[in-house]
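sorry for the late reply, my laptop died twice this morning and i had to redo everyting from scratch. anyway the thing you sent over, i finally got around to it. pasting the sequence first so we're on the same page, its 567 residues, then the predicted structure underneath. double check i copied it right bc i was rushing
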Amino acid sequence: MKYQGCAASRGVAIAKIFCYGDQTLPVEEKHIDEVLRRAEIDCYHAAIAKAEAQLQEVYAHCAKHDEDKAKIFQAHIDILQDIQVREEIENAILDEGKCAQWAIASIYDMYAAVFADMEDPLMRERSIDLKDVSDRLQRALLNAPPAVSLTDLPENTLLVAHDLIPSQTVTLDSSRVAGIVTEVGGMTSHTAILARSFGIPAVLGVPGILGDVSDGMDAILDGIEGILITKPTAEQLAHYREKQDEFKRIQDYERAFLPMQPVTRDGKRISVNLNIGDPDDTHYRPFLPYVDGVGLFRSEFLYLSRKELPSEEEQYEIYSRTLRYFGSRPVILRTLDIGGDKKTDCIAIPQEDNPFLGLRALRLCFAMPGIFRTQLRAAFRAAVNGNLWIMFPMASSIEDIRKAKAFCKDVCDELAREGVPFKRDVPIGIMIETPSIAVMAEEAAEECDFCSIGSNDLCQYTLAVDRMNPIVRPYYMSYHPSVLRLIDGIIKAFSARGKTVGICGELGGDPKIVPVLIGMGMEKLSMSPSAVASVKSAICNLDSRKAQQLAENVLKCTTEKEVKLLL
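ok and here's the structure:
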């Protein structure tokens, strides 16, 4: 049987399935007599103390080995200490006479359901954290044994689960797990992050898979294409063993290019840069010596998952710290890109039927000038500490560009009047993500110092397809000739005026399309850290003159299938 899911972590696994089933505690709604309610509250408080002690122990253990995992458990401690949730549980016990376990389960489930319905995939994943804390707290209350550990899995296991929550995965012995499959989850889930950090192939979002498989069943997992095959034939096994060996050979080969300069065989130097979010994220640190700077610094991380706006001083410190990390290398700060699939509690955005076409990114900043000015003040102040470039997302017209530049001038004039140290001559650019500004690329190039192509949204808006909707996934075609022709026009318009043009969407880290981009004249690529080695390999093995011919042929194609055949 063949199943299709989300390819969350690359690689190929041939292994035996181990089903990790539901371990949720049964919850019975019991009524507590009024004279016993205070004692029930005491039991609840004791459970909180016990659960917090467990979390502190797990956090301390993780902090020594994996700072990213440690952050997850710090978040769990914060959830456990949430005053509002605690008061609601206490009220359910004292005022309504509910037993502590029922109160814990129902209140946490209510909040988890709210998060699960959010459009932002990162926010949806937070519902898993709430359920995890609820389970831990209930077990502490009942003195129940912990959930089954993933420490002693059989060798060469293909782990299949509904989902894997952090308190489960912390015990996972990665040396025994050949692959991971879940019924839910996507690229931003804890399971996906875990799999990629361990280098474990993973296919997520295969609904109902637990009901179709059993322990010990032979299976093949293709984390490159997002495929799970159960009860494979001899021919399928032979094919995927070859694919597995080939993937390992390619990985080993590409890693050798990581410390090399990204120069084509005929001497053309290409700038390789990182896409980063939280500057304290440890994932990108090992790559600092091997890149030319930051092609996309997502500033929205400062606004997500918090109830209050970041202050000017907080933003100044974080931007300054990032600039110091990279020294003289450029750091392109994308101004606030909230809206669409990204929501936050600290900014009230009206409910919209089509949020991707609504109040998002630069439009939101214009609608809330106080937030925009605070960020710009922090950015221009921080610019004295390094090589900062400022980039505006979702500019859809020349008017947008001019209006954003006017904000910059006003902020700089204000800082000058106040006598605050800042840097005025910061390069100002835009992300080109909409067909409207792509068509006006020549005029945009006259207004900007640089641009970076956001290929994900450019593809979405050009093809009129929601890139977050799995139902229309086949219509989202990154290599579609219309998208590539727009990119070609943008490159030509900016290059002709001596302006820097880069790309920071998924195409920027895709070694298959990199030769075409370079052939079009692209000289700046930005990508996730995991893509640096493979992109450098593609560059170093490329003749830019042959790439130019390839690009010319690709631009003559009329379908994505034709493009893929050429690649």
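The chain has a mean pLDDT of 88.
thats about all i looked at so far, will dig more tmrw
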